[in-house]
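Entry type: protein chain
Record version: 2
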Amino acid sequence: MTRMMIAAVTLGNGGFEMIEIQQVPIPIPAAGEVRLKVLAAGMNNTEINTRLGWYSADVEVSTDAVAGTADGTVQREDGGWNEPTPWPLIQGTDCCGIVDELGQGVDPALLGKRVIVRACMRPKGYDTMHNVWMASDFDGAFAEYVKVPASEVFPVECDWTDAELGAIPCAYATAENMIQRAGIRSGDRVLVTGASGGTGSASVQLAARRGAHVVAMASKSKFEEVRALGAHELAERGEALEPE
């Protein structure tokens, strides 16, 4: 008898009406894969953009503008990260979970570990730009269980909650990549725009940990929260940085 689970299934490009709660089969890990019991899943713009088909080369406006005209009857063939999005799809790019089943050839030490999952995967190695995105190219974490390559899970032992860990992969990996590409070092002066958002707040923390002087731009109502993340100076969103 096939075991079933509850999942939020996105049927195609469009608005929220394209998301259905369904009973679907629990995934079985193949060789080299693990199955996770999902403890927490984060929500990113990636989920919204993939559903709207915003990554299509035909789209030249903001996410909000696309959302206002989203049409579930229009399927954008290039609207995902790579190949056409394989609708119907379980989204959920960020995941914290417990490894509850192993595919053939996987290290048994992973069983029972609390892990986070790398969102952007490089199955062919880092000498190529080929990548695979969780929840855009294959089913993600908006479900009770998800299966992923064993090479893309990382055990975490700390006092962070499942929800806190579930917010890490996409936002913090994006921020870390930007900081590494910019070559930020101790003593540098860094401006972070959108500093109260997921990637922005991660950038503030990671830059500050490197010893950079962080100038954070955010709405005034969020100044104290952003300052607590490590910002040294704050600039109000929409205001000139210097008097005209």
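Comment: The domain at 171-236 is CATH 3.40.50.720 (Rossmann fold).
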